């Protein structure tokens, strides 16, 4: 049977009848979970270096030091692995962002600066993350595009929550904070993509300053609009 570029025919499993055994105190389910995590970590390294379209199952298995049968134990193919890698990285970013906001003064400008700094430091810390999240994620396919859109919506909802808390009632003025948040996420991703494409040559503080300006302009606009809703402003 021919072998495609992205698929390696799995080897016949040794000890196929012993999948439930415990080795070193670890049961089969936990061993599989650990193998899957190794493949996700290997996928990040391979995709980050070679890009999705130049990567193969063989590359990932070599990086993970696992055979192809273990790859197909956890994933249907390379797109499936890429989604898992993207999801893992996105969850890490979301956790880091939420943590930074939790330790920040509840002032809109400070919250925006804290969230943006977390994002830019996160992608600069590991260029592999940057390539997966900001470059290849938009070229893998329709399912990945939908997955990316859902992740961006999660970050937009995070911004919306802050806006609704800081400036309640904007909907009474015909403003949809989710639309605004979507625009902010999109603009920030575009700036970050350009920064990554230029191999992050520009100082982080310069990129942060320019990205923050868009958020501060939106905050100022929301603050002025929200002021019109206060009874004292009418007086």
How would you describe this structure to a colleague?
α4 runs parallel beside α7 (142-166) and α6 packs across α8 (177-197). Residues 1-5 and 9-19 have low confidence and may be disordered. The protein has 2 domains: 24-78, Arc Repressor Mutant, subunit A (Orthogonal Bundle), CATH 1.10.10; 79-229, Tetracycline Repressor, domain 2 (Orthogonal Bundle). It is built from 10 helices and no strands. It has 235 residues and is mainly α.
What structural keywords apply?
mainly alpha; 235 residues; disordered N terminus; 10 helices; 2 domains; Arc Repressor Mutant, subunit A; 69% helix; 0% strand; Tetracycline Repressor, domain 2
Topology record:
Elements: H1 28-50, H2 57-64, H3 68-74, H4 78-102, H5 108-125, H6 127-134, H7 142-166, H8 177-197, H9 204-227, H10 231-234
Helix pairs in contact: 1-2, 1-3, 1-4, 1-6, 4-5, 4-7, 5-6, 5-9, 6-8, 7-8, 8-9
Q: Any idea of the CATH topology of the largest domain?
A: Tetracycline Repressor, domain 2
Distance between the termini: 81 Å
Total number of beta strands = 0
| Domains, number | 2
The fourth-level CATH homologous superfamily of the largest domain is Tetracycline Repressor, domain 2
Classification by helices and strands: mainly alpha
Considering DSSP H and I runs of 4 or more, what fraction of the residues is helical?
A: 55-70%
Main sheet overview: none
Overall CATH class of the largest domain: Mainly Alpha
Low-confidence stretches: 1-5, 9-19
Overall mean pLDDT stands at 89
Shape: elongated
Which CATH architecture of the largest domain? Answer: Orthogonal Bundle
Radius of gyration: 22 Å
Secondary-structure element series: HHHHHHHHHH
Discrete helix count: 10
- Residue share in β-strands: under 5%
